[in-house]
Please model this.
Amino acid sequence: MSEVKRRDKNSKKPKGSSISRPDDERQNHTEFRLKTHWKYIAYVLTVVFTAAAIYLKVVYTEPRVATFAHADRQYQKQHVTIVCSDDYKRDTFTECKPKFCGRVVMDGIVTSEEVDHLLGVAKMGLSYGGSNGGASILDLHSGALSKGDKFISIYSAFPGGEGFKEEDFKIYRTVKNKIQQAIGDHFKVPLHALHLTKPTFFSRMNTSEAKNIHDEYWHPHVDRQTYGSFHYTSLLYLSTFNKDFTGGRFIFTDNGTETAVEPRAGRVSFFTSGSENVHFVEKLKSGVRYAITVSFTCDPEKAISDPDVV
Ligand SMILES: O=C(O)CCC(=O)C(=O)O
Ligand SMILES: [Fe+2]
Model:
């Protein structure tokens, strides 16, 4: 065998050899490996940083809000059926308690004349009081009106003879009956089994800083827990998102996902009041937002009669 082969075996470069250059090759190979190594490290770092950036973005950005009803569109009926919570299990009101649960938005129930009239009533009534913080209510059953950081009775606040007129209550009743009909039709509840309950109230929200818990409308809550007797909640909006105010969307929250109803004057939004419908109102960013909450119960003992002149 040749010397070359033996040298290969020993893999030692012979002194002064000018032929084959295994050391150069090894050096080239090492350089190549180093370059590949650094490329690999750079690649791994890029992947790690990209993954971390995506993770942080997903974790720390606000949840994406899907819009169930846009303010600049009109819906004859936008609805979704959802699984009911266990909240109704112990209820005995078989004709009325939700057989299925859901969320509904309808824009064609209340006329613009009715909306204008009720907005006038809300502004007039609330002008006698008003919370120091961002949320004021005027309860049509009890007459409770936010004033400063407490509540007063609207009936004692009206100077002699002024106040709500029969016409105001007539329009409220007409609107309430239309909403009750829509809820009964949708949730297949006979009207005789569905009763108006308290509180039923005008609300006004603005950007003032909250002064007490009543002003903090932006906390997720369940109406049945907050108000006790509710089976079906409805809201009639008297002003419009992105026209009369910004922020202030109504948000349903479902395990980290959020679904918005954008208020629109004349829009009726109704839903079953149990923990299948956790919701809140976003903080207002500008303007003033007016709405009426009209609530219904299946419990005849929690029924109230229609508000009327006192
Ligand atoms: O005004 C609204 O859109 C909803 C208010 C609300 O959730 C409530 O009063 O319980
Ligand atoms: Fe609520």
The chain is about 30% helix and 25% strand.
